[in-house]
Amino acid sequence: MTISDSTTTFHHKKVVQYDPETAFDPAPDVVYRLSLEYDDERKMPELIAGFLEKADKSTLEALIIGMWGEPYEAGADAVIAALVSHAPQLPKLRALFIGDMTYEECEISWIVQGSYKPLLDAFPQLEELRIRGGNELTLEAFAHQNLRKFTIESGGLDQKIAQALCESSMPKLEHLELWLGTDDYGFSGDVALYRKVLAQLATPSLRYLGLRDAQIADELAAWLANEALLATITTLDLSLGTLGDVGAEALLQGTQLGNLTRLDLSHHYVSAANQEKLKALPFEVVLDDPQEDDEDDGEVYRYVAVGE
Prior knowledge:
The chain has eight helices and 14 strands. By secondary structure, it is an alpha/beta fold. The protein folds into two domains: 1-104; 139-308, Ribonuclease Inhibitor (Leucine-rich repeat, LRR (right-handed beta-alpha superhelix), Alpha-Beta Horseshoe). The strands form two sheets. Strands 1-2-3-4-5-6-7-8-9-10-11-12 form a twelve-stranded mixed beta sheet, with helices on one face. A two-stranded antiparallel sheet has the order 13-14. It is globular. The protein starts with 8 loop residues before the first strand and ends in a 7-residue tail after the last strand.
């Protein structure tokens, strides 16, 4: 699997590609995606400024930033700085997605990201932040009083990001989604580290926990199946990773999954027998996209859904 389509809905709104040459639609159910082509002579800060001249800055609720020219070379810091410079004119901005790119625009592991502490400080009213790409992503410890959804999509998440989250605070957090990826593309860390992340960020309001696209999916499942901090979770998402029978059996024997309404294991390596057992659990279990082990010289290989 690769990310082959741009986002179609975000923050409960329909996504529309922004074109400076066409009429601007101020409809409240629309969120614009700003994106450049590789040969575009404009810069993303210019596109943002032009867009905001047309938009009603006092009511703008959500915005998506797609490809900012050559994202495999130029990072997102200039984009972040441009957004920060306009922050005083955007009092209603509640949702940002930075890095909405398909694999044809830029592979997820190639996206050069930036430093997000300035953005988080500039938008204290933000409720949703979604970041795609872990290459050169920088996240210092932060405290944000209003974030409800926090997502990092990555082909390989560096342990420094998780360590920063261990020292951060999001007291209203409802949705925590991290794509861990594979060490081939930058993942580092272990279950002990993510145990600390959950201990820090598992607020009473947390309902969705996604530790997705993980090469350590079996180990995560073995831990989470008996993790008391899951008491408020209604959706546990371990999809896109390498989960197999070890993780499946841990989940089947789990003692802390009683409040779940949905367990997503899509893209998995679970045997048919254990799939049937999982389907019998008293909540929705999603088992789409089953995979088969690859073998070479007696070695077994499994692959996350989104790496490069």
